[in-house]
Amino acid sequence: MYAPSSISYIKAENAKFRSPYLPVAVFVGGTSGIGRAIAEAFARHTKGNAHIIIVGRNRAAAESIIASFPYPTTEPLSVQPKHEFIQCDVSLLKNVRQVAKDILARHDKINFLVLSPGVLSFARDDITEDGVERSAALVYYSRWKFIYDLTPALTKAREENEDAKVLSVLSAGNGGKIDLGDLPLKKASTITAIKSMMTYNDIMMDGFASRFPSVSFVHCYPGYVRTPIGSNSPSFLIRTLSFITNSSFSPLFYLAMSPEDCGEYQLYGILYTASTPGAWRIGKYGNHIGKKGYYGDDNARDVLWEYTLEVTGSK
């Protein structure tokens, strides 16, 4: 049984993080919820001494977050850090391609890529122009495409002995078996489709780790967190769970983790737990969970990879 470290210990360890170079961190879906909390923790512990890019739809929220970041004043820097926002509806793959291209034009190296857009739901009638269900686009296809298009900058960072780590925030360890004959999930029930998305993220990280062995690819399960994400979901179940979790009248409110603590734990996970290149799965305390609840294998990894290459137009 894993005994979680106290949040005070985790914060103290994160505060020790020092980088001999100016890190570049990209947060996709960083304008609210867990992504925002990780971005804020990263900015806080680097004392603002980092290039930070937030990608999302809400410009006002992003500008408010960036304004709260520490401004670097204590350490002499040869390059002035930039904290910036790129507006993007990441449910559309053409937008992902363009934003990735823009980021690569600005930065030839990326050290941290954190992906947290979307919420697990499945509305069969909400199909994007790419032909995939919108929530699937957010929690899987757009994330895969961001990683795929940005791997040149991640691998270049490792070539220069810098960190190169990717974190996908979803639900490691809570997936289910997948049907390799129905990867579009046309025949799957809603619950099966949702669990499949979790497993797709596991297999996605294995697929990238096998092809880009110098980089760390992490899938995490943050647990129940008090965030507004899900309040506007087309799924009645997701909206209800979001309301219950965020209501101070509900017991779940007190069982759920605060976004701030979640941000600290997940930052610890990518800074320290994912200590070597390869595929990692971490839990809500930033702890290594190994193959718990894992439903992939080498064949599934390769079949899903080829299918996703086709769907995302990456062949």
From TrEMBL:
Entry-linked InterPro entries: NAD(P)-bd_dom_sf (IPR036291), SDR_fam (IPR002347), Sec_Metab_Biosynth_Oxidored (IPR052228)
TM segment ranges: none
Highest taxon in the source lineage: Eukaryota
Keyword Oxidoreductase assigned: yes
SUPFAM superfamilies: NAD(P)-binding Rossmann-fold domains
Molecular function GO labels: oxidoreductase activity
Keywords: Oxidoreductase
Presence of keyword Oxidoreductase: yes
The protein's name in its UniProt record: NAD-binding protein
Organism: Lentinula edodes (Shiitake mushroom)
